[in-house]
Write a structure and sequence with these properties.
Blueprint (H helix, E strand, L loop, with lengths): L1 H21 L4 H7 L4 H4 L15 H8 L12 H16 L1 E3 L2 E3 L1 H9 L2 E6 L6 E6 L5 H15 L4 E4 L6 H15 L4 E6 L10 H15 L11 E2 L3 E3 L2 E2 L5 E2 L4 E6 L13 E4 L8 H7 L1 H4 E2 L2 E2 L2 E6 L8 H12 L9 E3 L8 E3 L1 E2 L18 H18 L2 H10 L4 H4 L10 H13 L7 E9 L5 E9 L5 E3 L16 E6 L17 E7 L10 E8 L4 H15 L2 E4 L4 H9 L3 H4 L28 H18 L6 H9 L10 H17 L17 E5 L6 E5 L8 H7 L7 H4 L6 E2 L10 E3 L4
Parallel strand pairs: 5-15, 5-18, 6-11, 6-12, 12-15, 20-29, 22-25
Antiparallel strand pairs: 1-2, 3-4, 7-8, 8-11, 9-10, 13-14, 16-17, 19-20, 19-21, 21-24, 22-23, 23-24, 26-27, 28-29
Helix pairs in contact: 5-6, 5-8, 6-8, 8-9, 13-14, 16-21, 20-22
Length: about 750
């Protein structure tokens, strides 16, 4: 006992020193961040005096007594007392030596059987035999997290590395409830049958129930005479009339490929297996609320867990887990504070731990991992992929064995973007305090007072608006937006939802505005506005894009294959001012006839162009991901798959924008004020010096200059208001949001 305690103390001390030296968080250090929850479950950090055998007395008895948990004869008071005590500990937990073992952990350590790695006693070769699990530090922490949630009436969400025994542990949670609580219902849900059966969580639960029936001397035996199928088992007996009676607890499994299939029986424990591969996870979790509470009173507990490297954990499925994990409180999940982040920033997400915190190869007999050795091991493994240039394989390895949550969410389809950077920025947007606020609203026309003449566009905040604004336009000394400072990209649609056979399910119209470089003291190379929607009438989307172009004085690069938006701008006589022509950068990359079509508006779309603009978005994300503040942009970057590229609308809009930016840079086009250069010139000519009277030639002194108003008076002319001098021929316009104003006329003065 003393030797074990000393060994345990040495590793705990070593891990603390490693944490202090490197700043890398440990399980112990992040549990400290959640100290306010400790009293809820009597949590206590492991110390040098802790012995995991304290938590597994029944397992020790079973091993010592050659398979018998108790030597008391069946049916005696001592026998009944023994099993009553075990049931109580599995239900409510067990406190010993000042440490509390939650009930699920007690059941797992004492009454769950799984293949345990060990050396073959005859050959000495590594093998696995069925046995009781070893105590692990991470299971201890997670068991208390579950207890916190249950007592706070909140559910749980967990993102984990590969190979940490989570399916076994959660299967044990279901078996514990089935065995120790009458009429309880446990539901295991997965979007694919293979995730439940084969080597899935349900197969593990069934195997252990059979083991309990055969190896607990009847103490935890529950016959299944009425319901005993591969997806549904109920503990009950049948009398002579075939009427069911008895314990009546049950475990039900469902294949959920649509959220509506979540509906069913009230449930005490609801498990979302392989949540990183779960179709429609967010909707399913919302739908399942009715299964674990009645009239707002919660009685059941939900737990979802998954790995970024699970089979099928990519694209929308993985993003569902990321959404719930990143915003646990929104979905009724208990938040877990930790700083398993690249910059050691403390965040509140679901329960997470890194691969270096739980690794059997470097774990002592007390279930504590040697952090330093394990961290070095995974760094070396990562370097092998890096040295071989196997970027996709490295991304997958990091997803299975992450150090930080964003690494677990780095998988998608064929995705060339640096999803780790994008995911890290997405997490920062949710938790950092220095993030600029996005304004939501609509762009509305500005009218000349007392008339229906449109003089510009202004932004009006509205929580139900469709336009997102990070910054309003930078203006020059005259109050006008700069020329060539803002550019835009459009992924258009030719039909709105009411004019299309596919309705709301089709692609969305997307328009983004990017602010180019002005000077070092201003923000630049940053997307400042976006709009993404599929309105009933496609012209509504075109009008919003025009408003965005006018508001920012920006030219828009559009896909030429979507002709309706170009026609719309042309019909309003706004195409020359606000639509960009085909980028010259593509002149030699499109076709032999490109030179003849170079004056066409918009960009032709083919595979070469798509590859080109994807590479430009890739470069932008790599260089400027830390200034992408629109969550939906980051979601599309992380989630993007070339195979399903038609599902993404902001990526092509960004691609159009980046191609236009590239073209302007190549042509040396820079942002500048629209104020005419002549406005800065001084009057120049012959004059007499006011003091000496000598005739001179040069810049006229202020004392001899005449204002425009003075010259008008001397020449007996009527002064003209500057505003009236700048009026241009307008166009007829109908604003669908302000139809009551009737016909309008543009009077754009910049």
């Amino acid at each position: 006992m003393v030797k074990k305690a000393v060994k345990n103390y040495r590793l705990i001390k070593k891990n603390r020193e490693w944490h202090k030296k490197t700043g890398m968080p440990t399980i112990e250090s992040v549990m400290e961040l959640n100290k306010k929850h400790w009293p809820i479950s009597d949590y206590k950090p492991l110390s040098e005096r802790f012995n995991p055998d304290w938590f597994r007395p029944a397992a020790i008895d079973q091993e010592k007594n050659k398979g018998k948990y108790t030597t008391s004869p069946f049916g005696t008071k001592a026998f009944r007392d023994y099993w009553d005590e075990q049931l109580k500990r599995c239900r409510y937990g067990y406190k010993t030596h000042g440490f509390h073992c939650p009930g699920d952990l007690y059941f797992f350590l004492n009454f769950y059987i799984l293949p345990v790695p060990q050396d073959d006693p005859e050959t000495g070769e590594p093998t696995r035999i069925d046995g009781h699990p070893h105590f692990w530090e991470i299971h201890y922490a997670f068991a208390h997290y579950v207890e916190w949630g249950r007592k706070l009436k909140m559910d749980g969400i967990c993102l984990k590395p590969r190979g940490v025994g989570w399916s076994e542990y959660v299967a044990g949670m279901g078996d514990n409830l089935y065995t120790t609580k009458k009429r309880s219902v446990t539901s295991f849900l997965a979007s694919n049958e293979d995730y439940l059966l084969k080597d899935g969580i349900l197969s593990k639960a069934w195997f252990n129930l059979d083991w309990l029936n055969d190896n607990t001397q009847g103490g935890f035996k529950q016959l299944r005479q009425k319901q005993d199928s591969k997806l549904h088992k109920r503990a009950s007996l049948l009398n002579n009339e075939k009427i069911e009676f008895g314990w009546r607890s049950e475990i039900i499994a469902k294949i959920v490929d649509k959220p509506d299939k979540v509906r069913g029986n009230r449930t005490d424990l609801l498990v979302f297996e392989e949540a990183g591969s779960f179709k429609h996870l967010v909707k399913s979790i919302s739908t399942s609320r009715a299964l674990t509470e009645i009239g707002g009173r919660k009685f059941g507990y939900k737990i979802a867990f998954g790995t970024g490297g699970d089979e099928g954990s990519s694209g929308e499925n993985l993003m569902g887990l990321m959404k719930v994990f990143s915003e646990p409180y929104v979905y009724g999940m208990l938040g877990f504070k930790h700083n398993f982040t690249e910059n050691r920033e403390v965040v509140t997400t679901g329960f997470f731990f890194p691969a270096y915190a739980c690794f059997m190869q470097n774990m002592n007999h007390q279930g504590i991992t040697d952090y330093e050795k394990t961290y070095a091991y995974f760094i070396a493994e990562r370097k092998k992929f890096e040295d071989a240039g196997a970027i996709e394989e490295l991304r997958h390895f990091k997803a299975e064995y992450p150090f930080f949550p964003n690494e677990a969410f780095a998988r998608g389809g064929t995705n060339i973007f640096d999803t780790i950077k994008a995911a890290n920025q997405l997490l920062r947007l949710k938790h950092a305090d220095d993030i600029p606020k996005i304004k939501v609203g609509e762009l509305v026309w500005v009218y000349k007072k007392g008339t229906s003449v449109i003089t510009g566009v202004r932004f009006q905040e509205n929580p139900n608006g469709r336009v997102l604004i990070l910054e309003e336009p930078e203006v020059d000394s005259q109050g006008n937006p700069f020329k060539n400072l803002y550019i835009g990209g459009v992924d258009s649609i030719d039909f709105g939802s009411q004019n299309s056979l596919i309705g709301d399910d089709g692609s969305k119209f997307a328009c983004v505005i990017k602010k180019r470089y002005l000077h070092a003291e201003k923000t630049g190379n940053m997307y400042v506005a976006m709009y993404k929607d599929r309105p009933k009438d496609e012209r509504d989307a075109y009008e919003i894009a025009l408003k965005m172009a006018i508001f920012y004085n920006a030219k828009l690069n559009v896909e030429r294959t979507r002709k309706e938006v170009i026609s719309y701008f042309r019909n309003q006589n706004m195409h020359k001012k606000y639509l960009a022509k085909q980028p010259t950068i593509l002149q030699n990359n499109i076709s032999p006839n490109a030179r003849r079509t170079i004056d066409s508006y918009g960009t032709p779309i083919n595979e070469k162009v798509i590859v080109h603009y994807l590479n430009k978005v890739k470069e932008y994300n790599a260089d400027f991901s830390e200034i992408i503040f629109f969550e939906e942009m980051l979601h599309e970057i992380i989630n993007y798959a070339y195979e399903t590229k038609n599902r993404y609308d902001l990526i092509p809009a960004m691609g159009m924008c980046e191609m236009l930016d590239e073209d302007l840079d190549a042509g040396g086009v820079i942002a500048k004020s629209v104020v005419k250069e002549t406005s800065e010139l001084k009057l120049y000519g012959y004059y007499r010096d006011p003091v000496t009277g000598i005739k001179k030639h040069g810049v006229l002194p202020d004392s001899v200059r005449k204002s425009a108003e003075q010259m008008h008076r001397e020449l007996d002319l009527v002064p003209v208001e500057p505003e009236e001098m700048m009026v241009q021929d307008g166009l007829t316009w109908v604003d669908p949001y302000e139809e009551s104003m009737g016909k309008h006329k543009f009077e754009l003065n910049y």
